[in-house]
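Ticket #4471: structure output looks truncated?

Reporter: J.K.
Steps to reproduce: submitted the chain below (120 residues) through the standard prediction queue, then opened the result file.
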Amino acid sequence: MSFNDWEHKPMNRRRGLRILKVAGIAILALGVFGLVVRGLWNWLMPELFGLRPITFWQALGVWILSRILLAGFHGGHSKDRRWRARLIDRWERMSPEEREKFREKLRHRWGPFEEAERSS
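Returned output as attached by the reporter:
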């Protein structure tokens, strides 16, 4: 197969268009987020805290920094729902003796929690 044959396959063309489309949407989203952060900052922060207005690039930097610090590098909070589902599943599979042993460990570590016990 020559280089020209590979280049003309419809799958590669679609893949290239898809990459361009995703890149365009990502650039557009970054621009919108930067404008929104800049607008909110320049509207609220000078008035509330006496801070200076910021530029678009500073706003983009603030947004990226907040994503890193508050959300980490993973994609959101879906991880939080999974651990809860696993805990509920594990709790439902426990025998009454195992549940009581687990409650004792929690009491020892965190103190009494009578209200939570009455609801279960």
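Triage note (M.O.): checked the attachment and the full token line is present. The chain has two domains: 1-75, 77-120.
Status: closed, working as intended.
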